[in-house]
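Exercise 7. Predict the joint structure of the components listed below.
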Amino acid sequence: MSISEKKLWAAWSRLLTGMVGAILIGFLVPILVVVAVSFQSKSYLSFPPTDFSLRWYQQFIGNDDYRSAILNSMMIGATAAALATIAGISTALAVVRAGVPGSTIVSALSIAPAILPQIVLAIGLFPISVWLGLQGTLWAVILAHAVIGLPFPFITVCGALASYSNRIEIASMTLGANPFQTFRLITFPMIRSAVIAGFIFAFAASLDELVLALFLSSPSTRTLPLLLWEQLNFQVTPEIAAAASVILAVTSLLILAATLLPRLGKDN
Amino acid sequence: MKHRSFLLYIPVALLLTPFFLAPMAMIGTESFSGQQGFGAEYAKVVTDQGIRTVLSNTFYVAAMVTIFSLLIGYPVAYVLARLRGRWATIGIFLIFLPFWASTVIRSFAWMILLGRKGPINSMLLGLGFITDPIRFIDNGLGLMIAMTYIMVPFIVVPILNGLRGIDPNLPRAAAVLGANPWRQFLAVTLPLSLPNVAVGCTIVFVTSLGFFVTPSLLGGDLTVVSMLISEQANRLLDWPLASALAIIVLLLTIIIFALLRLSQLASRRRGKTQAGVFA
Amino acid sequence: MLQMPGRSATSGQNRAVGGAAVSIRNLCKRYNNFEAVVPTSVEIDSGDFFAIIGPSGSGKSTLLGMIAGYIDPTEGQIVVDGRDIVPEPIYRRNIGMVFQNYALFPHLSVAQNVAYPLKIRGIAKDEIAKRVRESLAMVRLEAFASRKPSELSGGQQQRIALARASIYHPSILLMDEPLGALDKNLRDEMQEEIKRFQQELGATVIYVTHDQQEAAFLADRIAIMRDGAMTQIGSPRALYEQPNSRFVAEFLGEASILPVKSASAKQAGQPRQIVLEDGTQASIHTDEDAGPGRFACIRPERITVGPKARGMDNAYTGTVRESLYTPGSIRYRVELNGSGCALKVRVLPQGNTEVFETGSTVDVGWSADDMTILRE
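Solution:
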């Protein structure tokens, strides 16, 4: 009796695990579908694909709009993530380590851009961007994306700083290192993976961002999501699927590098 | 020595003051600068039937997406929390893989999947469940499916953290006291994970309120507030009304998070007094 | 042999100043209305091993933090080698510190950890390499130079922390519960290691611990802290044999502490008669006031049990209420017949020592010299 009851619970537990496994695999399906439709030759989307061709990839490679959009997105993403990371590190140091007054409100403000709907920020930033003469330049989007990227390095670095005692830094200072030397030789090496992770998250947030780009960019500073968006609203062709597949591949490589790099660094 | 640490705030102040705080102040003033007089935009938001429909649509979609995300996310987090080692890593990797794909691309994927002749309709037709293709994209169902797909990782992470923080001896203690696995879950695991469920639901709900890309692509005739703001500003150039709507969304966001914070503080205080009684 | 340069440098530095290596003057720390450390003054001689003990919250760690520089004192001076270091930031104080959990830099190798203070001071690379080798040899960890701290045992990490804190010949070496994270056996071993290390370097050490045995083993002088004040400072022996308060007597070792009711007047050379609250009479040599509010104190090993107790200055019969054999000693709780006065007794057994069972009647006694009078 008790044995069969035990078996029943075990079976139920296996069923639940199996269902969750199916959900997790199911999560990949939409992405695989995008990749699958990119390899067809028809000029409209059909699934399952009936043939195989690289036609849309050739068109994608030859498309100057994509090339400049990718370039713009990379420049915007890298610069915005760098600005966000610098601000995130110094704010995290102030909040977690230095105990500077006002840390509660500064923390809340630094996390707020992650929660605030981007349309709200976009409506407010547009007139400011015009007023500052930034409208239509790369800097308008860069600075907006630095704001929405800020929460990521701030949160990851706060976490890294909170994970070890400030005694490490006090020890460094008793040994004669001034605050700058302590940061360079002790603190930074200890939070390096968090900094890298925060930078990548901020970069990814910029690469994904559409609404601010929609309001703040000009045709010459068009970002990749914006181009995809315009194409989707204009005409849905498998070229978009090809572009999406390439972006997916590049992002996956970036993520892979981001997870492997800190480990390689540790071995040295 | 102390006051020098204020210098650490300089970068964040340089970034947030002109590009975050000033914009917020900007929409505040802009929302009251309409031609029809002070506060007219807000009156319009309250009285205009069209705007009210948009707002209620937004709430409806956000609420449904939160419920769907919780129904899928909780079991996923529960199973992931019990996995150890490599399988746990793989599980988290799988749930986050789509997360790295851009929202535009993920919405696009669902446009393909849910299309009238898309794989889901052809499969359902082929299996004989339906005789006519379901018009996912027109009835809002497709929008909610796609948004749930996008939001599930956001609810899994806090719940997973909460479940992992539960002392494994607590369910064991319940078991020793005679509770079967289901009762252990109801009596120990579920209540202890509720604070993190609240965090996850709040994040999903608030994020869903502000969604723009997915509703634009998959919403069909359904309009949500972000689309309305964008339309007022870009096409109709009614910045005061767009700003008033933005202020309302901003206030809602702040209020919802303040409520979450208050409930956290209240439960912490309750916890403290209880501990006091036992001590 | 290799340690010689280090030793001569340190003691040479100290000798130039002579006398006190550290002089703490009216140092205090207030948080709002709470006085963590009341104004405290103490001189610590060069080459001294000075231990600060006290219960948690007594202010000992705050005091150490003020000397190290990571807590700002409210008032007072800390004079090291003739200069007040309070206005100086931590990194200019030239102080060595060993932290509770060692605070080794996890991303640096053992050798890099030990080299760190020299690198900061801009010392030439080959000189650093030479001194790191010497220093690691001194703590017998040369073979571990390229390991990461996490690959070492707790005791080894402790020795690396010692090497790192001393390689630049700091004026004083601070240690904050350095053995707190180690288990009992390792702690005993490390105590000897620290003592040897300090003597070889001739270093001035300020050592904070809550473990009275550790302090007694290591220190030349001990300060006992309570509620932010040093209640008594002295050698381990002075503190044990002449505690100035009930708190010190109870904190350091065991004692029977008995409230006094009245005492006869002082008479030069004569023992005085005191009456305890429970009516027990005893004779005692003391010049202290011994009225109500005072306590008579007798250490457990000073009480004799058995026939030899008869005829002592204070001799009674009592009943054994508890008899406990522990490694190295026999412990009794004895109640005096008549008054019911309870005494803690410890006997160091020899081959023929009789062990009394619970319930048996015994003679107990002690000399008038072995009893002291304490304030609260």
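Discussion. Chain A touches chain C at residues 164-165, 167-168, 170-179, 181-182, 185-186, 189-190 (CB under 8 Å).
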